[in-house]
Specification:
The chain is of the alpha+beta class. The strands form four sheets. It has a six-stranded antiparallel barrel with strand order 2-9-12-11-10-13. It has a four-stranded antiparallel β-sheet with strand order 6-5-3-8. The chain folds into four domains: 105 residues, conserved putative lor/sdh protein from methanococcus maripaludis s2 fold, CATH 2.40.420; 90 residues, Efflux pump adaptor protein, beta barrel domain (Elongation Factor Tu (Ef-tu), domain 3); 57 residues, OB fold (Dihydrolipoamide Acetyltransferase, E2P); 61 residues, Helix hairpin bin (Helix Hairpins, Orthogonal Bundle). The protein is rod-shaped and about 130 Å long.
Length: 369
Amino acid sequence: MSSPTSRSGARPRAPRATLALAGTFALLTGCSGTSSDPEDVAAGGPEPIHVTLARVVEEKVERTVSLAGTLEADARALVAAETDGRLLSFEADLGDAVAADQVLARLDSAATEARLREADAVLAQARAEESRAQELRERGVVSQQQFDDLVSQLTVAEARRDVLAISLAHSTIRAPFAGRIAERLADVGGFVRTGTPLFVLVAENPLRLRGEIPERYAADLAVGEPVRGRVAAFPDDLIEGRLTRISPAADPDRRTLAVEAQVPNPHGRLKPGFFVKGDIVTRDEPALLIPAEAIARLAGVERVWVIAADSTATTRQISTGDRLGSQVEVRSGLHAGEQVATSALSQLIEGMAVRVRQAKQPRPEEKRS
């Protein structure tokens, strides 16, 4: 019996829908390059796909807030002359480290010393007269009024002597606190008056790191949280400090909060003015982690291939969080202990049997940010 033919004598064409389904099936089977049917394998068919697995692990990870700021001196003082005089010498200069109360410079004090000797003599005379008057008053020779005048003269002489002693002490310029000379503002031989700036002194240990963070992170911040960062001058050295101050008000224009951290600087390597890029560690909390290469993304949807105990592959949609080195945080869709494929993702089909090539676990240094 012959097959039906068209009016022209040719065979009728298959419907387009039938051809489309057949083509899709051929494409799927061709892309897989294998068969998941054990009978096909036993009959010498293609081997199951070999995949690499990684276990979903739960680890504590650090949550951080990015911080960029500038190092500033813990204290900064403009050291000025406290009396008039000619500048005789410097005992410290630009860049020198100085201790608290260390001598920085000396003014010519010859005239003040002479006036002080004169005041000492006047004071000694006033004390002697007051002592004699005390004896005479007790014998009734000196009136109370005369004695009170002598006591008043003694008080004035003591005050004048004290003023000159203070002026003499001020001719020696001393450091108000331990630090380093950031600037020298005068020269030897020049005449300076009270208030003339001589030095800029900065306290460099510890330093203050001042910066700003977006206001949306305000609830995550607390005084005492660790701060870590780096500076361009020493890119391989990690700077560590503690958050010490948080502004009580946000900048309405920038929508940021000003924060301040204390950074130890025992060796003086860090300098005020250095730019720091780092993070504030807000908390440690457990998170599920998988390798980044286990995630397949298509049209904004993230999926992984979960490999069950019977070595079959099942696709599952997940939600991810932070990227932590080579690992990615999984917020939903997986459980600790499950295994996901990290290779041959494009070749897998739902329900396909696979063979495990090797197990891959995250290295310890990749678990934390």
